[in-house]
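Dear support,

We are seeing what looks like truncated structure output for some complexes. This example has three components. We would appreciate it if you could run it in full and send us the complete token output so we can diff it against ours.
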Amino acid sequence: MSHVTGSGAWLWLRRAAVGLMALALIGAPYSGGSAAPSPDTAVLLQGGDILTLEPYFSSSLPDTNAIIHMYETLTRFGDDLKLLPGLAESWRLRDSRTWEFKLVAGRRFQNGEPLNAAAVRYSLLRGKEFYEKKLGDVQYEYSLLDLDAVEAVDDVTLRIRTKEPNPLIPLHMAHTQTAPMPPRYTSQTSVNDLQRKPIGSGPYRVVEFVPNERVVLEAWADHPDRPRIRRLLFRPVPEDATRIAELTAGNADIIVNVPPDLISQVERTRSGRVETVAGLRRIIVGLRMDRHPALRDKRVRQALNYAFDCRTMMRNLLANKGECTGTVANVPDQNPAVKAYPFELQRAGALLDEAGWRMNPRTNVREQGGRALEFGFDCPRGRYIKDAEICQVIASDLAKVGVKTDLQVFDWSVFVGKSARRGAGFRDIYLIGSGPGFECQADLALVQKDSGSNRSLTDMPRFEALWDDMSVTFDVKKRRDICFKMQEVIYDEAPVIFIWFQTDIYGVSQRLEWKPRVDERIRLHNARFR
Amino acid sequence: MTATAVTTLPVRRGLRFGAVTGARAVGALFALCVVTLVVVCALGAPLITRSNPAGLDIKNRLVPPAWAEGGSREHPLGTDQLGRDLLSRLAYGARVSLLVGVSAVAVSGVVGVALGLVAGYYGGVVDDVIMRLADFELAFPFILLAIAILAVLGPGLSKVILVLGLTGWAQYCRLTRAQVLGLRETEFVEAARTIGASTPRILIRHILPNAMAPVIVIASFSVASVIIAEASLSFLGLGIPPSVPSWGGMLSEGRTYIERAWWLVTFPGLALMLTVLSINVLGDALRDILDPHLRGLS
Amino acid sequence: MLVVVLMVSAASFALLFLTGDPTELLLGSAADVMSQQQIEEFRRARGFDRPWPAQYLGFVIHAARGDFGESLRHHRPAFEVIWERVPATVQLGAVAFALSVGFGVPLGVISATRRGSAVDAGAMLVALLGQSVPSFWLGIVLIMLFGVYLPLLPISGRGTWLHLVLPGVTLAAFPLARNARLTRSSVLEVMHQEYVRTARAKGVPELGVVYRHALRNALIPVVTVIGLQLGFLLGGSVIVETIFAWPGVGRALIQAIGNKDFPVVQAGVTMLAVTFVAVNLLVDLLYATLNPRIRYQ
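Here is the complete output from our reference environment:
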């Protein structure tokens, strides 16, 4: 075959290849450089996109991390979760339903509008309107707020009246959905524009918003606390491996959700380190009381906890980055006397025997009266750290004591559907995470019989008696005592399989000085470059 | 629809083993060996390994292969992120991958060929409707269909096969229809009609055998791409439950460990690559044996 | 053609609906503190309690006027949510397409004309490999090689043309391999046909033989397959978009499905279907140009 015939295509290919290589060589010095962040910009890679910068339209974490830099609230949570003054310097309870806040004087919004009580009033009433008209994303916060009226007594005095007495109003005023917005600008700007170009009173202003690609914030010169980092760049990178690659290559300053297995890998590179913080999200296996009869027996539930070797899992699967627990209350309300269930296989077996569930040596599954001790186990994937893996470990541990599980793993959107209506779609047991309530009673609502977040239909009479007691107690010390007692009851009744409080694991560049917070928010007001 | 297929008259297909010669024969033989090995592994998985592929042992996570530092004889290829033996997962995974590949192709093949036969033979409205359906199947992004169906039906091996089967039948339909159009007016079909043979008989006994060759060729290549599609579904977190080993699932689960535990992706990746490669080479050889005129298909 | 588009969008609507309406997903943790009655009110206020054919009909009526409704998650017109991602998707798709055709077809021709040589064997091996590797795996390996170990290229996101290289190559691998193999076998097939032999016998120079007679007909099956490849590009791009954080339509669609964001799903699916049908028409036209014999079909 003559070589002439292919020569046309060959020539073309050769030329194209050479051309591309030349381009690559020319472009190479700019490529690595353009990806590396500039000296005055901190680059944050989050898992999800930033959809909106308007706090009343969002409650997703990626949005919130940008929003907390652009807005301020009347109060705020410090890094140790103590409630601190923000735009309000002090507050007091005026009568059972009214809280009065004294605002800092002389503050302005980024567009010059005065930040006074009237502006705060405007914003809160706007939120209330959204709630009533089912607009925006304020359902959760404003149903808890249950506002009756807001009054601007003078420029720095604000009174908030709620329909029912509510001791937690100052805590609520730390929520971004109560952030003051400039009345004139906000009322004159379309909802669409507000999502991209909002104006708040925080230390940063938005200078660039390319949807789905990046958001750039720049420090605002006239803010009383000048932050030390001039620019913040937020980018969405959904894939774990890609985020880590970016940190390793030196292109990022903060990356979220580093899998525990890869901590050593990040720490080995010179460009990054790992920062962990014990989070507030409780991860548990809920045990439904209205399905399999075995779960109604306290001894069975306790046995499940004794059979689960939590410590080995913590050490091996989660790189020892957390601790097993025996409570669902968050710090500082945890009862120190309540420790995690120890791993005692014998005891688990004995309890199950006692409860009448005998081991069938042929199938290796326990049974009673012809019914097998088998649970349907529903598990989400990719929502919590190592969720699917934790479920598999628990299933394997339970099998060793004769409890069979049929484990099914679902995508989060499907799982949420099952968890709706108080877990109506769940089978017998399910893995789930629950955010903090920021207060003991709110935390323990997870297992209170009427609570919407109680997806197991748990009903513990001893607990309920204490709960009713606590609801009418206002003395802080007495509340704490009841809180501790309730945790003892919960431990004994074992309405869940206790696992841990999820640890948040961040990857941080060596040049950035920053420590993570327990509430999953990334706050860079005090961060700086070395 | 390939022009060559439509204009070729139905040649009585003899099997031309002689068409596979030289380097291609060596390659085909090698491929045959690989595929046989995979099938043997799949069928004989319990004999090859003693470890239970679903046996968790988190104290022994991420153990390297036996020849590397830290490895042990007990786990010749190492263990995965939950301490399961990699070799046994690989062997059992062969079962799943082959099962998914063959079954899904069987499903789409049967559905597609049947519809293609009907469309090509009857023509008219029936043809139009079926062709619209085929266009619809091609227009619908496969991933969306997969996500939607699996969201409704829940995860599971059979559902994955169903999804993969439902998203590939259109090509068989079009191909068969084109073949049928070419065969419809030929003499032996006319003859059969004058004798009074019923339509299904004509379709199955006379037209189908002649139309099958290109379908078989495409089917063989499809097995490979279905196995890869299953890997993609696993990447997106859909499909097979985590305890059931599948090469695609192993690749997906191991992708973040590329640096930390290279054996998690290397062995399933190699297995996948070699198997798919061999299936494709065999497909080439099969095509040559059945009818070199089908070279336009791949 | 319209029928196809309607069928596609109706089917996707129905499928999404089968697992329940988006009320709980939208409310998120708010549902925990709301009473069942409040939740039902929310459902009714948004119109999710109507039977799905009614909801679908309402959607179609608006869609005909170009209004796909407001995205439930983004609080913006659903059409906008999809449309603003089209440029990125087109960019990536075009690059992958150009690579797969621009390198794949010539590679196939060269292989065919140097049949049996080392070049042929090598090229076909590479092509076979390209069809045997899942795209997510290839993407991650490329990131490791060219983004981390040899920091030559940007790893994720969109910006300069360099950001297109890794995702483009990853997306192009499978179609490139396929095109190469297909072109090779097609050219070989045609080279053996009667009329080529005739032309050679007539003394037409080799180059002319290849390019005028052979290539034209050889490209017919290639063109058909390339048209079908668009479906793959759009589907395969979901994985590439996820790995490389590329802001394309695919990922938006997946997220919308996960969020049961009906308007966005509809907007996306409809747009995809329309694009596919349009490309199909183009392919048919091209087909007819290359092979006059079927022009009147």
